[in-house]
Amino acid sequence: MGALYAELASLLPGLRSRAGREEIVEAAAEQVKVLEDTVAVLEAYRAVQVGGAAAAEEVSVSYRETVCFAARLPAARWPGALTRVLEVFDRRGVEVLAATLASTGGGGGGEDGGAAAMVTVTAAAAAPDIAEMIKADIASIE
């Protein structure tokens, strides 16, 4: 059993070298949560990415200990898109932990039908009703 605990400990980032069995198990459980959160973020991103260049009504939300929002905004909505999305979280009192804005397709913020902005936001946990309000607010961004 000692060899198995040592092997598990070697797979866990940031674990001190002389960790006890209880600490190893706790660190492993925490790492599983981190990986699950990462999967949720990636699934939300993929759901919106696969959705095509539709309007922001395509807002995907994944829940765990954090909430991940991903929205695809048509090119016509680009100017100030990230600022407007962040303002939604501020109005609803939800702390933003990370946010990204990426261009998908097309060459700029013009009226190119294939161009869009992909906005992803990871925020502190929020009640489901608040998350739904945020989702609706993002979908209505013009």
Question: Gist?
Answer:
By secondary structure, the chain is α+β, with helices and mostly antiparallel strands. It has helices at residues 2-11, 21-50, 81-92, 128-139; strands at residues 59-63, 66-74, 96-104, 116-124. The longest helix is centred in the N-terminal third of the chain and has 30 residues, at 21-50.
Task: List the main descriptive attributes of the protein structure presented here.
about 140 residues, alpha+beta, 4 helices, DNA-binding transcription factor activity, ACT domain-containing protein, BHLH95-like, ACT_dom
Textual characterization of the structure:
This protein is α+β, with helices and mostly antiparallel strands. It has one domain. Helix content is 45%, strand content 23%. It has helices at 2-11, 21-50, 81-92, 128-139; strands at residues 59-63, 66-74, 96-104, 116-124. A hairpin with a 2-residue loop joins strand 1 (59-63) and strand 2 (66-74). The model is unreliable at 52-57 and 107-112 (pLDDT under 50). This is ACT domain-containing protein. It comes from Oryza punctata. InterPro entries: ACT_dom (IPR002912), BHLH95-like (IPR044278). GO terms for molecular function: DNA-binding transcription factor activity.
Give the mean pLDDT.
Answer: 76
What is the tally of helical segments?
4
Low-confidence stretches: 52-57, 107-112
Largest sheet: 4 strands, antiparallel
- For the termini, the CA-CA separation is 59 Å
Could you give the count of β-strands?
4
Share of helix, binned: 40-55%
Outline: elongated
> Could you say which structural class the secondary elements and strand pairing correspond to?
alpha+beta
Strand/helix succession: HHEEHEEH
> Strand arrangement, largest sheet?
1-2-4-3
